[in-house]
Amino acid sequence: MAGNRRDFLKLAGLTAVGATAVSSIKAPTAAASTADSHTEASTDGVRLAMVIDLRKFSKDDALIERCVEACHREHNVPNWEDDPKNEVKWIWSEDFETAFHSQEFHFIREDLKGKPTLLLCNHCNNPPCTRVCPTQATWKRDADGIVMMDWHRCIGCRYCVVACPYGSRSFNWKDPRPAIEDITIDYPTRMRGVVEKCTFCEERLARGLEPACVEACGNDEIVFGDLNDPSSKVRQLLAERMAIRRKAGLGTQPEVYYVIDDPRTLQETAPAAVVEGAEGGDHA
Amino acid sequence: MLEKALTGNRTYWTWIFFLLAVIGAGTACWFWQFRTGLTVTGLSRDVVWGLYIAQFTFLVGVAASAVMVVLPYYLHNYKAFGKMTILGEFLAIAAVIMCMLFIFVDMGRPDRIFNVFLHPTPHSMMFWDTVALGGYLCLNILISRVSLSCERRGEAPPKWIKPIIVLSIPWAVSIHTVTAFLYSGLAARPFWMTAILAPRFLASAFAAGPALLILLALIVRKLTTFDPGKEAIQKLAEIVTYAMLLNVFFVAMELFTALYSDIPEHVLHFQFLFMGLDGNNTLAPWMWLSVVLAVVALVILVNPTTRRSETTLVVGCMAVFGSLWIDKGLGMVIAGFTPSPLGKVTLYAPTAPELTISLAIYAIGILIVTGLYKIALEVRGQMKV
Would you say the ipTM is above 0.90? Predict the structure, then answer.
């Protein structure tokens, strides 16, 4: 566990340092000939991605709630609980069939049926939302592929909300501040009339921390890392497990993956040879 | 010349003050919306565009339709449209200004509108739409101003204006094409992702716009000594007929592709429009009304006897306009959001302030048309004393 964390922090640090860091990890990227064609064609440096392990989410029903709460508290996301019309959300849960709405699931495994599934911005490698923005108030960051938002430039036309195939963007129909219970002082609040969404916790990455939802999990239910690094945990998980992405057929190349293996396989592979053991983890 | 809009009889001023009252109410509502946010509208996280953007889309068509009088007159030297051309151009000016206002009131941060120019973004269709609409407005103001002041002085229009007029023809087509591209290039919204959207927009525009122009010309004829000429009205009626037939044909092609392929994400939007989805059938009565109006319009317009009779022609034109307004100014945008990309159906109904603001923008357009038409008629000495 600690080993993983150390790797992660190294990665996050590199991301934060920016250009120099990116060039220093270019070599392994070039060597990664086994990468999917789309990742090769993408950002040269770090390509951040998230793998959500639905197997591991099976056990703890309250976990999703903790992830959502951690994120929304951290980012001053307003809570319009009794007012769905004004709803703002960065990360939320839908049942499995809704999350993968474009696929038709019949007679699926019991554990997947209606299973609460975490949804957030997919930080697409080919994002349709940034393409439509008339002011470049949202863009894909070159250094790591995070789809960013500039709340001071956004004109509130909501074209990006219309263009997102995942419903990941929210508009502030009214002033969000009264609906924030405890304001986190070191993160900005938004004003009415702008769009907001998940930023993969770029502000935490810059401080060498994991994204808030990942931290809220603690047991690799969500794995976060660099897709361009063949030895990263995300890559190893994707190589070994059956993972799907939302509406992959649209060509947006979403970078949030969902492991849908049977949870019963979890125990058999529990040493998680790659994920933890190989690192010589000292967590036992 | 503008001073000519500032004199008039009692009826004229009553009409102006009525429009100003509507505009005043809408402005008050807009200030409220500006202070409170777009939460005063019926829009929500799932239905993020509604009445405002739909009106914008519809009115781009009205603006583009001026080309239906400009093209025959200037390119084919069709003299019968001589008197109508200026009405078409002035209608285009009013329509473009309404379009811009509908975009403006839909913005979450109207105070940052200049960001569109400070950070020009060629990969955004919205940027190109801004360029196309702004350019079209300038072209029409320039053309109508130059030709009207020449007419006042009894001179022929200068030679240099001709290429500009010719440029305005493809430009008119471009504004509605780019507006269709706002919608038809989005992987997220299967309802709009159809190559025929732009042609369909143009067909409906060239039906609804000239239909409105016929109605306006007949109103003006009633109020003043202006006479557009029977031939001009009839020629426009033929244009409306062909365009409406094309539009209905295009819609039928959409329906065939969606329904025969039976792909749920295409079918569901049409199901929502005409039958309702998950118990939400707010638009179904409207859409069926649109169908009925389209049938009525075509029966009247295709039949030469009823098309030539002015009484029935007026009914036909109103039916065309009403049918297409429902189709484009109501159904097209809202159905794109229903169901949402996650398959959810969310009710959208415009609120009172939203309706008032929309009415006020229409009132601004009517005010502009009134003023500009009055100027044109004063110049020609066709106002009744």
Answer: yes
Whether residue B44 and residue A87 make contact (CB cut-off 8 A), yes or no, is: yes
Q: Does A193 touch chain B (CB under 8 A)?
A: yes
Q: Hey, of B30, B56, B121, B268, which one would you mutate to test binding to chain A, going by the most A CBs within 10 A of its CB?
A: B121
- Cβ of A171 and B125 within 8 Å? no
User: What is the sign of the dihedral through the CA atoms of A268, A271, A272 and A274?
Assistant: negative
User: A252 to chain B: which residues are within 8 Å by CB?
Assistant: 187
Name the pTM for this structure.
0.89
**Domain coordinates of chain A in residue numbers?**
37-269
* CB within 8 Å: B108 and A155: yes
Name the residue of chain A whose CA is nearest to B52's CA.
A157
From the options 1.20.1630.10, 3.90.1150.10, 2.102.10.10, 1.10.10.60, give the CATH code of B2-379.
1.20.1630.10
A157 touches B: beta carbon within 8 Å: yes
Digit-by-digit pLDDT tens for chain A (284 residues) are 444 544 554 555 444 444 333 333 333 333 333 334 444 444 468 999 999 999 888 777 799 999 999 999 999 999 998 888 999 999 999 999 999 988 888 888 888 888 999 999 999 999 999 999 999 999 999 999 999 999 999 999 999 999 999 999 999 999 999 999 899 999 999 999 999 999 999 999 999 999 999 999 988 999 999 999 999 999 999 999 999 999 999 999 999 999 998 877 766 544 444 444 334 334 43
Q: Among the CATH numbers 3.20.20.70, 3.30.750.24, 1.20.200.10, 3.30.70.20, which is that of A37-269?
A: 3.30.70.20
Q: How far apart are CA B308 and CA B237, in angstroms?
A: 9
Q: Position of tokens 């309702």?
A: B276
A79: contact with B, CB 8 A cutoff: no
> What secondary structure does DSSP assign to A133-185, as a single string?
-TT--EEE-TTT--EEE-TTT-----HHHHH-TT---EE-SS-SGGG-SS--T
**How many other C-beta atoms lie within 10 A of the C-beta of residue B114?**
10
Best CA proximity match to A255, nearest among A95, A51, A100, A57: A51
